[in-house]
Design a protein that fits this description.
about 240 residues; 14 strands; five-stranded antiparallel sheet
Length: about 240
């Protein structure tokens, strides 16, 4: 019977169970997800080599979506789990800069997996709501001050890293601009580095050949301007959008 139980546990039947219980599923970029990993023993003794936690998302590639692990790291060293034993391990996992925000079209989740000697991984996943950092929130609110509304986002994979592009609808009645797109990166010396793209309506003779143009620009948004709040940022953002339009 012992041999049969071990064989069944190896394929996940009667083996250990792992459950990550998140205390703060809504968390800002730059802060930490906190919770506890609960491990419950099955019908046989098992060696847990390590417990790993990480974050995952999906990005668009051609016409399909690819699941991508942003990072994964061991949070608990190896231990032996007895049959029926229950163990709890508190964790605090930083949400690094570059983690996509949870918006329409974008999902991020906590991935829990256990390396068990000779057995299947009894993994677990938990949806998270990734909120913008205070600096990112200030810029998004500044766009709102100008009448732009956040419509959604798209995550792509470029040059070895995940990039999230935010899309904003123009103010009501605006006929010149079709869409404002924005990519935000934390700047090394503080503040944000921003890529702006304005999709504008073609006019005149150009409208005979195309319906819209794309204009792109780079913008370093310094910390002192962000500290002035959304209204101060909105004035600079408005000027840059107009220059691209």
């Amino acid at each position: 019977m012992g041999f049969l139980k071990r064989m069944m546990a190896a394929v996940g039947v009667g083996g250990a169970r792992v459950d990550a219980r998140v205390q703060n599923p809504a968390v800002r970029v730059g802060e930490s997800v906190r919770g506890v990993v609960v491990v419950e023993g099955g019908s046989v003794e098992q060696r847990i080599e390590r417990l790993n936690l990480g974050l995952a998302t999906r990005y668009k590639k051609d016409d399909a979506y690819v699941t991508h692990t942003l990072f994964s790291q061991p949070v608990v060293p190896g231990f032996t789990l007895q049959p029926g034993e229950r163990r709890e391990f508190p964790f605090e996992l930083p949400v690094p800069t570059g983690t996509p925000l949870t918006l329409r079209g974008t999902a991020v989740w906590l991935v829990t997996d256990a390396d068990i000697a000779g057995a299947a991984d009894p993994g677990d996943s938990d949806q998270l709501q990734i909120l913008p950092s205070r600096e990112m929130e200030t810029l998004i609110e500044a766009a709102g001050r100008l009448g732009f509304s956040l419509a959604g986002s798209e995550v792509e994979y470029h040059h070895g890293r995940i990039v999230q592009e935010l899309s904003f609808r123009p103010p009501y009645g605006q006929s010149r601009i079709n869409e404002l797109e924005m990519v935000m990166f934390p700047a090394s010396g503080g503040g944000l580095d921003v890529l702006l793209e304005v999709d504008r309506q073609a006019t005149g003779l150009a409208s005979l050949f195309t319906s819209e143009f794309e204009q792109r620009g780079r913008w370093h948004l310094p910390a002192h301007l962000l500290a002035g709040g959304p209204d101060a940022v909105a004035r600079e953002l408005g000027a840059r959008v107009q220059a691209l339009a």
